[in-house]
Amino acid sequence: MAPRAQAGPTPRPPDFQQVYAESALFVWRTLRRLGVREEDLEDVCQEAFVVVHRRLSDFDGSATVRTWLFGICRRVASDYRRRAHIRRETAVEELPEGAQAPEQVEVVARKQARALLDRILEELDEDKRAVFVLFELEQWPMAEVAQAVGCPLQTAYSRLYAGREHVKQAVARARAEGGAS
After folding, report:
1. Which of 71, 90, 159, 166 has the fewest CB atoms within 10 Å, i.e. is most exposed?
2. Where in the sequence is the domain holding 133, given as residue range(s)?
3. pLDDT digit string, tens, across residues 139-171
4. How far apart are CA 128 and CA 159, in angstroms?
């Protein structure tokens, strides 16, 4: 009987601090784009990294760390949305007065555009949203997106197309409403 070939030593799981240092911004952006409100991001991001810390020893390397992290973010954001009371208003203590400096106008315009995108992303179902966020916003290759969301490549492309169409129509509606008022 021939001896079995050795597969080599079992790979060590990545170091938590290294994963955190290299991925914290990605996790933050991903959670934000998957529907976590700005004021809850710190707590939900911490929840995600608690899961990462607890499950890091289970990481088997069959996917990239980034793909594995996205799966964790997707579940944590889904749990958050199920239990969160969504408020669409933002409280302010005082109304702004007077003219704004040009750079303030740009900052306000960016915030408004980001808020519009967040509202539009909330309208997408979870599968289309995940593909749209990873491909369009995070700029992942589509093969990696398909692996991260657990679907065939063509299905991922189909979800991307449907998500793009929804975003395009929602932006057109928002412009029409903004122009009408």
Report:
1. 90
2. 116-181
3. 999 999 999 999 999 999 999 999 999 999 999
4. 5
